[in-house]
Structures are given as C-alpha cells and as structure tokens.
Amino acid sequence: MSADHGPDNCLFCKIVRGQISSNKVFEDDDVLAFHDIDPVAPLHVLLIPKLHLATLADSDSTHEPLLGKMLVLAPRLARELGSADGFRTIINTGRIGGQEVYHLHLHIIGGPVRLPAMLTRG
Ligand code: 5GP
Ligand code: ZN
Predict the structure, then answer these.
(1) What range does the domain containing 52 cover?
(2) What's the pLDDT tens digit per position in 15-55?
(3) pTM of the prediction?
(4) Residue 112 lies in a domain
(5) Do 116 and 107 form a contact (C-beta atoms < 8 A)?
(6) Which of 12, 67, 77, 113 suits 32 as a labelling partner, its CA being 20 to 30 A distant?
(7) Taking ligand 2, which is a single-atom ion, which protein residues have CB atoms under 5 Å away?
C-alpha cells in the first residue's frame, strides 16, 4: 500500500475519528455506515470498517470476520432504511475499479439509480 493510501490523511478515517462530520445511520465497534454525500439513488449509504483497509485487494484471511459482518449487515441496513425489496451492493477496487476514496467501503444503493460517475470514469 502506498503512503498516499494510509490512514493519516484518509477521508473515511477522519469520519471514523469524528474529524469530518457525516450523516451516520449505524455504528458499532467495528463498522460505521453513513449517507453518501452525493447519492446516486434515493438510498445510498456507505458501510465501512473502522479499520483502515485501503482497498478490498488489501484484505487477507484475517479480515474474513469483518468482511462477513459487513455483508450480513448490508441487507439489515437496507431494510431498515426502506429498501426491503432489494438493493445493490458495490465495492469499487483500485483505479481501474473506479475507486475514489482509498478506505474500503461497501455502497448500499436502493431505488432508481442515476448513472453514477463511478461507472463512467475510466
Ligand atoms: P468510490 O468511488 O471510492 O467507490 O466511492 C466514494 C464515495 O464516497 C462516492 O460515492 C462519494 O460521493 C462519497 N464521498 C466522497 N467524499 C465524501 C464525504 O466527505 N462524505 C460522504 N458522506 N461521502 C463522501
Ligand atoms: Zn481510512
């Protein structure tokens, strides 16, 4: 992982540390979920580990419980936030994957989607 992608200047670590405000929808010891600042659909929440992991490609087997927890939590949050009928989960990874913020995050997107910039960047 390059120094640029470490925790010190990481936007989402700053949100975890409370240095940048966010519209939180869920928090426990391991994870935080908050509304995306530029939603592409009526429901657009980002679910992140509190642990700084730059990308999914930086994960290893020690992260399996954390990643599993996030996947199991996603439908519960979607349901509680009004998307009980279904939703999309997206994890963008790396430059080619259109990742903008280098702290692993799971997009939880419900309702009609406007074409997100993340899919048009290349
Ligand atoms: P990525 O393209 O890395 O998968 O997605 C990054 C997401 O973070 C984008 O959907 C973007 O709108 C969101 N985002 C960027 N900066 C902020 C911020 O300061 N606060 C919040 N809540 N979301 C942000
Ligand atoms: Zn971070």
Answers:
(1) 3-101
(2) 999 999 999 999 999 999 999 999 999 999 999 999 999 99
(3) 0.93
(4) no
(5) no
(6) 113
(7) 7, 10, 12-13, 52, 103
